[in-house]
Every structure is written in structure tokens, then in C-alpha cells.
Design goal:
226 residues, alpha/beta, Rossmann fold, Arc Repressor Mutant, subunit A, five-stranded parallel β-sheet, four-stranded antiparallel β-sheet
Length: 226
């Protein structure tokens, strides 16, 4: 299990990190909300634990930001603020559970396992080719763990290529599926958007996944050169 812990109390961090790692889990730590936001949105976690009273960006704000980008990752709030209003606000912003300090580590561990179990495998909805991942539900795209921001049209094009990875798609087929229009041989809109996509998905990386098949169209290969 890969866990993100966003907590500014060193003693709490030390105790939880040691406990989770002894149980065989991987733990990333952020001591403020801004770093927590960066880690949460640029990596994949099985669960995220958030304190509320964080520097720079509080736990409620961070929970809302994460939930806007990822609808499925379990979020557990871990805080000394234990009023009903505190809990209701957290749940309304997208938290899945709320544990009030002080707490017993065994109970926290049980809650973490229960949340992850209920969430199920997070990769089932994803389309994957090599180190490229696209989640059609959350609209999140990552390559080599790095978050990639796409426009709606670029996302639709990449989604199509991944759905048909290792298959050559002609320009007319791409135009019909992505733009819902009959292909005009006088337009280069498909080529332009393939180039946009390559600049974001391929150019910053060593391996080029999107390939041109001369006279036929484009293909996204799981194993480039195959």
C-alpha cells in the first residue's frame, strides 16, 4: 500500500511512518499543504491522510483540491478538531473518514485498511501503455508518474489512441471519433492535434509512444518499435 501522510507534527509523523512501514507499507510525507498538494496530484496513492491545521493550505482546502482531480482515492482526515461541524465540513468536501487525535494506532490502521478495501483496485478503470496512464473517470493523465495537463480535445484523442493501442488508426477514423465529423482531406486538424499531444506526452520523455505510419495514420504502441 502506498500512503501519503500530510501532517505538520513531527512526533505524529514519526510514529505513523514507523508504524505503517513496519506493516510493510510505503509512506510519503508532506509537512505543509502546498507540498501535500504537489505530491497528491503528481503521484498515485492508495490512501491519503490529511491533518486539518496545515501551513500554507489547510486540510479542508487540500481535500477539496484533491477530490476535484481524483474522485476515487480514499481520504482520511486526521486532526484534533473533533466537533460535529468539523466532521460534516470534511465529509462535504470529499473526505471518506475522520479520526480525532489522540487515537490508537491499531484503530487507525484498521480504518485505513477498510477504506482501501472498499475503494478496491484503483487501476481497473485506467488505460495503460508502457509508463503512460489515463483514467477516463477522473480525467487524470500521467506518464512515468508525472501529471500531464491536456485540453478536452487532446484528452479525447489520447483516450482513443489508448483504447486502440498497437492498432493503426487512419485520419478519417480519428476525425470521426474525436471531432464527430466527416474527414476533409484538405484539413490537417488531426496532424495538428497529434503534434500537440506528442509535445506533452512524448517529447519530454526518452521513449516516443505515438508513431506515424506513413500513408496509413497513427498508432500508439505499448512497446515502441514493435
Amino acid at each position: 500500500m502506498k500512503i501519503l501522510l500530510v501532517e505538520d507534527e513531527l512526533k505524529v509523523v514519526s510514529t505513523l511512518k514507523m508504524g505503517f512501514e513496519e506493516d510493510g507499507h510505503e509512506v510519503d510525507v508532506a509537512f505543509d499543504g502546498k507540498v501535500g498538494q504537489h505530491l497528491a496530484l503528481s503521484n498515485r496513492y492508495d490512501i491519503i491522510l490529511l491533518d486539518v491545521g496545515l501551513p500554507y493550505l489547510n486540510g479542508y482546502e487540500l481535500c477539496q483540491l484533491i477530490r476535484q482531480r481524483d474522485a476515487t482515492v480514499p481520504i482520511l482526515m486526521l486532526t484534533a478538531l473533533g466537533t460535529t461541524d468539523n466532521k460534516v465540513e470534511a465529509f462535504q468536501l470529499g473526505a471518506d473518514d475522520y479520526v480525532v487525535k489522540p487515537f490508537a494506532f491499531r484503530e487507525l490502521m484498521a480504518r485505513v485498511h477498510a477504506l482501501v478495501r472498499r475503494a478496491g483496485p484503483r487501476a481497473t478503470d485506467e488505460l495503460v501503455a508502457a509508463d503512460l496512464e489515463l483514467n477516463p473517470l477522473t480525467k487524470v493523465v500521467r506518464r512515468a508518474g508525472q501529471l500531464i495537463t491536456l485540453t478536452a480535445r487532446e484528452f479525447a484523442l489520447l483516450h482513443l489512441l489508448l483504447q486502440h493501442k498497437n492498432e493503426v488508426l487512419s485520419r478519417p477514423i480519428i476525425a470521426e471519433k474525436v471531432w464527430t465529423l466527416n474527414f476533409d482531406t484538405g484539413t490537417n486538424v488531426v496532424d495538428v492535434y497529434i503534434n500537440y499531444l506528442r509535445n506533452k506526452v512524448d517529447k519530454p520523455f526518452n521513449t516516443q509512444l505515438i508513431q506515424t505510419v506513413v500513408g496509413m495514420g497513427y498508432v500508439l504502441r505499448d512497446e515502441p518499435g514493435a
